[in-house]
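Usage

Read records sequentially. Each one opens with the input sequence:
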Amino acid sequence: MSDHGHHHDHDHDHDDDQPGAHDAPLSGPALKVKALESLLIDKGLVDPKALDELIDTYETKVGPRNGARVVAKAWVDPAYKKRLLENGGGAIAELGYRGRQGEDIVVLENTPTVHNMVVCTLCSCYPWPVLGLPPVWYKSAPYRSRTVIDPRGVLREFGVDVPESVEVRVWDSTAELRYLVLPERPAGTEHMTEEQLAELVTRDSMIGTGQALTPAGRR
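and closes with the structure output:
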């Protein structure tokens, strides 16, 4: 496995119900969402700032909490972790989270020798059930192209310096197959509960553009 990782064919009609999923004209449902959003803002019914905050909440707080629970359980329960790595979708469904379109989720384990990161080169496939809304940068052309070409450079921009001794693997999501990164458990967390551990798991650590927080860096 090289830095360029896996590439898959994309089924290009799969994400039409997700606004902004493609760099193409908006399709019916996405167009309706945009039109409604513009109308609400124009009529003064919704403050654009409030809308941004709502989206931010789903991007960074509500959505990724599901994934954080999955990661924390894997950190404390070796049998669950084994199931998660063997059958991601099944193990995630045990906690009640499932894909809307039946897509499979594969869990990639970060180790002292391998760092995984996820991209969707042709659109913006994303593991919604465990991570909520994709961040704007995930859908951006620079992230999608540069992650494949220069993953270490992109990681450095996120403040993650991966030593040369660690292999960086880039995984390309598709409509049928999405990925969740299982970050390394931070040192000094041996006595923390599963709930406390979940607080250390960030959205970016589950995409591979970040690492889990240390107990001292907990927000």
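Summary fields computed downstream for this record:
- The domain at 28-217 is CATH 3.90.330.10 (Nitrile Hydratase; Chain A).
- The chain has one domain: 28-217.
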